[in-house]
Design a protein that fits this description.
about 10% helix, mainly beta, 16-stranded mixed β-sheet, about 45% strand
Length: about 900
């Protein structure tokens, strides 16, 4: 017993020990006043704030701390420190902000004299939830921020930064990155903030390039409804020693619009970049608005523009939509005045849609001296009120479109101006004394062909100051009132040589197939934008679509060769039309004939996967296509025409009354002959439904068409008739006649009872055939059944007859079907007897025995019934 108790005590002790080893959930230290707050922070770990605490002194985060709870840290009216920020996160320390509100109280106080900062981040700040709000600084200064990330890292996974203001100074940001700082925006909202800057060189997020590599990566979240530029990348300073980079992979920059309180409403309200690098890989930039330049994106070439690792704008994906400005509703590219700096701009993918400009460049505007490179682009369904629905360019810049990685411009519109409009797809303004490159590719993205026709005309003057509204409209070009393009009377296609020397308004001529393929092939779409000029793209600078030919960027040729099978006759070798195919679409065609030695080429093609198709193939021909090979820059393919094989089929018809005589054979032999020479043989049976097919037969031989015939081996008892490739076998079945005669044995019609005629029925194998004959004096009481089949299903038919009963006569039939039948009718005679009172004697028919047996059976049944009842009663007793 004691041993058992000791055993259970051991188990209990082990259980208690296990419980003691379980982790204990230590509740976060709850703080209610400022006096304890710094001490709690110094201890590290989780600090809970569930009430409002006034801050009168700076807080320093020197180790890992989590501030959690529903309370607030409110900047006190007693705050007097003008050199230190309310919160500083030291290097190697991490502050996780989860739920707490940091409230500046909208007090225009002096804090962080040099930085205007509410929070200085030298270590790591993680905003998971909660709010940083209502910080206002009116002290003049440069390079400052409410959240000043000084070589540290700011992760924003939620929460908000809102209603903060910097009301004086330049080059500032609500979130400011410098000295090798990084900002990662995953979720949350940055909204309703304002930064004052008379130069417009500040942003809600300012990525500095003065010192170190400063990086802002936006993967999610929103920067919206702010009164200043959302993201400023770089600086206007000509002394940068660092790198400023902004990458947008997701999220939204939206509805950041003009606010007079910002000190400058002129420039891009989503992104302003100068001496900085911007990459768009995703996300949406929409609803932003500036007064003059770049509703969404404003790019200024500056001193670092030659270094494309530091100063660039590359768009690979994402959406820029429904933004507005006077120039460049979506994107505007310019440079510092009186310099030759050029921003490196590549647009490779994404969508620039439904943006608007009051004057030039609804989607994109390019200022003189700047160049924008576009790849894999389609520009369609944009609308200009004056000229250049797709692209408007001026002779101060170039328009160059190339095959490799190129694009397409089509289905744009120029309409709506009272004085007239022109150039649905392209408008080009030429001024005296200016030279430019004007190159139009003859093929578009995907490989389709394009040509250009006049669509009205352009009037322009050489004095940029002329214009009724200060816009220089006549220098920029207006419609000259010429007739617009008429598809029924298009005129001559315009050449590049024509366009390079004078102003033009053009429309593209592209097949529907080529348009569809270009849309499917495109990575960048510019559509739905509006402006006075250049609704898709407006440019005093240069527009380059695709890549110029060089050793790497090659224009390709597809060479098509035709070969004929040697047996095809010469008169069948007629000209053929061959279509270029790409992506399942037919793009254009060439003609192959004897004059070009059955060879032609599609030229000026971009690299791609091509095929060809012979358009109108002769009915008796088939085309086979070789694999496409590439020899240098030439694709090669060969089409071989072969005659379609001949198929000969036929059917046997048996004309033998369904084999009445049973002599039809089980099979027949059909032979095929080619030009009189036997080439095939088939055995045909009922299992084949008496049909035959000879397949895969040559149509031609040695340049002549082969004549095919058939024959049938003799079939006993049948005659064969061949009609084309069908055979009818005829056999006449055997027939017979049966004669029937009538004899009368009536003493020469004694008593005058003989009828005028009698009817004889015919039976076949005992079955009434329905056939009858009538015998009378007129046919001397003789007639016959004629044309009767001898056999049925190969068996001889047994015929017999009967006579319809003749009253008063007895009938006797003699003879047979082969010799004929005789029917003898004998008159019946009768004898009279005297009447007697007694019943006549019952004739001896044998029925008396039947009656006796019946009576005996009934009697026995009655006795059995009585015995059964008595037995039942005794049994019951």
């Amino acid at each position: 017993m004691k041993k058992m108790v000791r055993k259970w005590l051991v188990y209990l002790s082990a259980f208690v020990l296990a419980l003691s080893l379980l982790p204990v959930n230590i509740k976060a230290m709850s703080i209610t006043d400022e006096a304890d707050l710094q001490d709690a922070i110094n201890q590290g770990g989780s600090v809970s704030i569930d009430s409002n605490i006034e801050l009168t002194k700076p807080l320093t985060i020197s180790q890992d701390v989590t501030l959690t709870g529903n309370g607030s840290l409110v900047l006190s009216t007693k705050w007097e420190n003008d050199t230190t920020s309310p919160i500083t996160v030291e290097k190697d320390a991490t502050l996780i902000w989860d739920g707490v509100t940091l409230d500046g109280g909208n007090r225009e106080l002096k804090y962080g004299k040099e930085t205007a900062s509410a929070i200085i981040v030298k270590g790591t700040l993680i905003l998971e939830s909660g709010t940083i709000t209502r910080f206002v600084n009116h002290v003049s200064g440069n390079d400052r921020g409410i959240i000043y990330v000084d070589g540290g890292t700011f992760h924003m996974d939620g929460g908000s930064v809102s209603n903060n203001k910097l009301l004086s100074g330049n080059y500032q940001g609500i979130i400011y990155l410098t000295n090798g700082a990084s900002f990662d925006l995953q979720a949350g909202m940055i909204s309703e903030n304002l930064v004052y800057d008379t130069q417009g060189a500040s942003g809600i997020v300012k990525v500095d390039n003065i010192n170190g590599k400063n990086v802002f990566v936006m993967n999610g979240g929103m920067i919206n409804e702010n009164g200043s530029t959302a993201v400023f990348v770089g600086s206007l300073d000509s002394r940068p020693n660092g790198v400023a980079l902004f990458t947008m992979n997701g999220g939204t920059i939206a509805d950041n619009k003009m606010d007079e309180a910002s000190g400058n409403t002129w420039y891009g309200r989503a992104i302003y970049a100068t001496n900085g690098g911007v990459t768009l890989n995703g996300g949406t930039i929409s609803g932003n608005e500036s007064q003059f330049y770049g509703g969404a994106v404003y790019l200024v070439a500056n001193s670092l523009s030659d270094d494309h690792t530091k100063s660039f704008f590359i768009m690979n994906d994402g959406i820029i939509s429904e933004n507005h400005s006077m120039y460049g509703g979506g994107i505007l590219v310019t440079g510092v005045s009186n310099t030759n700096y050029e921003y490196h701009v590549e647009l490779n993918g994404g969508s620039i849609v439904n943006n608007s400009a009051t004057r030039q460049g609804g989607g994109i505007y390019i200022v003189r001296g700047q160049t924008v490179h576009l790849h894999h682009v389609v520009i369609y369904e944009n609308t200009a009120t004056k000229i250049g629905g797709g692209i408007w360019t001026c002779s101060t810049g170039d328009l160059r479109t190339y095959i490799t990685n190129g694009g397409a411009v089509f289905d744009n519109h120029a309409e709506g101006d009272e004085s007239g409009s022109a150039g649905a797809d392209l408008a080009f303004v030429q001024h005296e004394g200016e030279s430019n490159d004007f190159i139009l590719a003859e093929r578009i993205i995907g490989g389709g062909k394009v040509s250009y026709y006049e669509d009205g005309g352009v009037y322009a003057v050489n004095d940029p100051g002329e214009g009724t509204d200060g816009s220089g409209m006549y220098y920029l070009g207006v419609s000259d009132g010429s007739a617009r393009f008429d598809a029924n009377d298009p005129g001559e296609a315009v050449t590049v040589a024509d366009i390079s020397t004078e102003s033009y308004a053009l429309i593209s001529n592209i097949s529907d197939n080529a348009k569809s393929l270009s849309k499917e092939s495109a990575a960048l779409v510019i559509t739905g934008n509006t402006a006075d000029r250049g609704a898709g793209i407006g440019a005093n600078g240069s527009v380059v679509i695709g890549d110029a030919p060089n050793e790497e960027n090659v224009e390709y040729t597809l060479m098509v060769n035709k070969e004929w099978n040697k047996d095809i006759p010469e008169n069948k070798k007629t000209a053929v039309e061959v279509a270029l195919m790409a992506g399942g679409y037919e793009l254009d065609t060439v003609i192959l004939n004897a004059d070009n030695n059955w060879s032609a080429s599609f030229t000026g093609l971009p690299e791609g996967n091509y095929a060809v198709r012979e358009v109108h193939l002769q009915e008796d021909m088939e085309a086979t296509y070789s694999n496409v090979t590439l020899d240098g820059s030439t694709y090669k393919i060969t089409i071989t025409n072969n005659a379609l094989p001949v198929t000969i089929s036929g059917t046997k018809t048996w004309d033998d009354a369904n084999d009445q005589d049973g002599i039809r054979p089980e099979s027949i032999i059909v032979r095929l002959w080619a030009d009189g020479k036997e080439v095939a043989i088939q055995k045909v049976t009922a299992e084949d439904n008496w049909t035959w097919v000879f397949e895969n037969l040559a149509r031609y031989q040695d340049g002549k068409e082969i004549k095919y015939t058939i024959s049938e081996d003799d079939v006993d008892g049948y005659q064969s008739m061949i009609n084309g490739y069908d055979i009818t076998n005829h056999h006449q079945p055997k027939t017979m006649n049966i004669t029937v005669s009538k004899k009368w044995d009536d003493h020469d019609n004694e008593g005058n009872k003989r009828p005028e005629s009698i009817v004889v029925k015919l039976f076949a194998d005992g079955t009434d055939t329905g056939k009858t004959i009538t015998l009378s004096e007129e046919n001397q009481w003789t007639d016959s059944f004629d044309g009767l089949a001898v056999n049925k299903n190969g068996q001889k038919i047994v015929y017999s007859i009967s006579e319809v009963s003749v009253e008063g006569y007895t009938t006797k039939i003699t003879g047979n079907a082969a010799l004929g039948y005789t029917i003898t009718n004998t008159l019946n005679t009768t004898t009279e007897t005297s009447e007697k009172d007694e019943w006549p004697e019952t004739p001896n028919t044998g029925d008396s025995l039947h009656i006796y047996l019946m009576t005996t059976a009934v009697s026995l049944l009655i006795l059995c019934a009585i015995s059964l009842m008595k037995f039942k009663k005794e049994f019951s007793n």
